[in-house]
Automatic annotation (TrEMBL):
Inhibited by fructose 1,6-bisphosphate (FBP). It is an enzyme of class 2 (transferase). The gene is glpK. Keywords: ATP-binding, Glycerol metabolism, Kinase, Nucleotide-binding, Transferase. ATP binds at residues 13-15, 269, 313, 317, 414. Coiled coil: none annotated. Key enzyme in the regulation of glycerol uptake and metabolism. Catalyzes the phosphorylation of glycerol to yield sn-glycerol 3-phosphate. Residues 5-254 form the Carbohydrate kinase FGGY N-terminal domain. This is Glycerol kinase. It comes from the Bacteria. It comes from Subtercola vilae.
Amino acid sequence: MSEQYVIAIDQGTTSSRAIIFNHEGAIVSTGQKEHEQIFPKAGWVEHNPKEIWDNVREVIGQALSKANLTRHDIVSIGITNQRETAVVWDKNTGEPVYNAIVWQDTRTQSIVDRLAGDEGVEKYKDIVGLPLSTYFAGTKIVWILENVDGARERAEAGDLIFGTTDTWVLWNLTGGVDGGIHVTDVTNASRTMFLDLKTLEWRDDILADFGVPKSMLPTVKSSSEVYGVASDNSLLREVPIAGILGDQQAATFGQAAYGKGEAKNTYGTGNFIIFNTDTEIVKSENGLLTTIGYKLGDGETHYALEGSIAVTGSLVQWLRDNLGIINSAPEVETLAKTVEDNGGAYFVPAFSGLFAPHWRSDARGALVGLTRYVNKGHIARAALEAIAFQTKEVIDAVNADSGVPLTELKVDGGATSNDTLLQFQADILGVPVVRPVVAETTALGAAYAAGLATGFWSSLDDLRANWLEDKRWEPNMDEDERARLYRNWKKAVTKTLDWVDEDVKE
């Protein structure tokens, strides 16, 4: 029998990818295509769901073609995705009623305030693990129902359905209007504000508060089981789709962080630190989210603490696209290395408010500490340092909540190719930073989930054996200098707060 493979569809914030993996967890081939970032107003971020689906089909073809493989070589399909981005579409026509509203979008703040009322943003946190925030999918559905003509009536008639982008891809991949499967997994469901973390069921009372018909919601399944097969009009027809994990949980799974106290940090559009709390639901006292890590078939549910940082890699994109001081993302390191330090400049990229551990929707970005001495090299360095400073804030919160300080940080994602960033990360944390051989751990985690469900891999021990260290950065910064830099960073953060008020219209 010829060698077999697993394919992962990684539907991310800026692009969609298809990556084929072999049994050792190594990348065989990749297809990738970016989609348009749509900014209709300040604070609004949208994607075109139909463009995303077209791109997914295209990148599957790219990956198969590059590896000279067909569907017969693929044993299963895994899906991973940008988690809180909401799509609402007509199940009879397959047409979205509005663009996908992206996780970074802040337009729903008035809905958050209305729902919070006198009880505050932690109104549902004991049940769903999340504070009320524009970040999560629930308020985005409400906005669509309240602002798209006829949407509420169509939803109440049972014609409209909702999904995060895993569900949108799965529904289309399994036939769309011709028998498409309307399913999500527990990790994505835990990012809506509607899922009871204990029972893994949608909460009727919370749905009633939001005014969202339960008929819109997908069926909740585990992260690793056969949901269905690709439809006859797909290049992967009849191949089982057998794994779904939200992108950050997928990256944790790909990092083989399966045990209590293990953690990873993904450097993507934003940064996301996930700390495994095993089968225990741990309530954060320090601004972290309680979320579901994974659930394999009928196995126990594994939970996690998460620190979500809204703007990290997208800050580098902003330097490229909005300011034009670099032509490509890798150039930020070259520019940053033209200077020895940040020149006193600190960049707090609160473009969508501040996420963990602050949760301040009223914050907006600030570049502070400027003098005539500061040049574009210092700004590039301040941008990279901002990624590391924000990570330290969240790691401090993880250490406080868990009571067990991290001794090293496993990292993955696109920005981990940046040595300058990762050395500064180790310096400001005071612990080693470790990158695996396969940095595409998000797609790998989805592949692992799918391969476990179809017997391609037999156990978590198989997956642990695949993990290999690529490079390690040791801290070498003086403790007094570390403290000084971090003190100034925290001062800079205070300058971003209380910006959005009744005098500042979004």
